[in-house]
Specification:
Blueprint (H helix, E strand, L loop, with lengths): L4 H7 L5 H22 L6 E5 L5 H8 L5 E6 L2 H9 L5 E6 L12 E7 L8 H10 L1 E10 L5 H8 L10 H10 L2 E9 L3 H8 L1 H17 L4 H4 L2 E9 L2
Parallel strand pairs: 1-2, 1-4, 2-3, 4-5
Antiparallel strand pairs: 5-7, 6-7
Helix pairs in contact: 2-3, 2-8, 8-9
Length: 237
């Protein structure tokens, strides 16, 4: 089983300077999320699955959170940009078919899948393979299944989103893929990310409204606004 030719073609030239700054800002908030769930600055030997342009790997290395880094990616443009970063801790970068990881069981301390699952055609196959090669894994997705789902589908289609989650459907997916969540948290986008997307005034306003709603109405807010959800998991024993 591999990703469809159509999906692979979509990402072939996706990673370029136009998306670089956005991904750098997003990587900073992602690593903040990982730290908030792990409770430690050490991730050990890390594999980033669907590593994109390597922004998350670069941020992890910048914070000295790993002993060594590895990456797999379906896009040749992403692989080129990862290699171009010249990360000191990067030991391997490989192209993969989207499902079969070229590593033995339990090769890594931590595997990451950051904003990858929403693009995956066969989610449970992907997650089982992620869990096979790692001791723990961190999976992050957008919670786009709000009351305005049709709008989310229209806005996300240009970015290749296939799957749309609520907190409950995401947790069910993890559980039925053989994973045991150790910690699951819903996050707002950072102020920096909102400002990058919407400008200083509107970006700060969006961040205030969304973060305040999540704090005051944690169950209701994800029905109204798009948030992010991060899950730290281990394989079911």
């Amino acid at each position: 089983m591999s990703q469809s030719l159509e999906l692979r073609a979509f990402y072939e030239d996706y990673y370029n300077e136009a998306v670089s700054q956005k991904r750098s800002i997003a990587a900073k908030q992602t690593v903040d999320h990982i730290l908030s769930l792990c409770g430690t600055a050490s991730l050990g030997k890390v594999l980033d699955v669907g590593a994109g342009d390597g922004a998350v790997l670069a941020e992890i290395e910048r914070r000295t959170m790993t002993t060594e880094l590895h990456a797999v990616e379906i896009s040749s443009s992403g692989i080129d940009r990862i290699r171009g970063r010249n990360l000191k801790g990067l030991k391997s970068v490989q192209e993969f078919d989207g499902y079969k990881l070229p590593f033995d069981d339990d090769t890594f301390d931590t595997a990451l899948a950051v904003h990858v699952l929403e693009h995956v055609e066969h989610e449970r196959m992907f997650l089982r393979e992620l869990a096979r090669v790692s001791r723990i894994c961190y999976v992050e997705v957008p919670l786009e299944h709000t009351f305005r789902l049709q709008r989310s589908i229209q806005l996300s289609r240009p970015y290749g989103h296939l799957n749309f989650y609520t907190l409950e459907t995401f947790e069910n997916l993890l559980s039925t893929a053989g994973l045991s969540p150790l910690s699951v948290t819903t996050f707002s986008n950072s102020a920096d990310y909102e400002i990058f997307l919407s400008g200083p005034f509107l970006g700060r306003a969006k961040h205030f409204v969304r973060s305040s709603a999540l704090k005051l109405l944690p169950r209701l807010a994800p029905d109204l606004f798009v948030y992010l959800c991060g899950a730290l998991c281990q394989r079911k024993r």
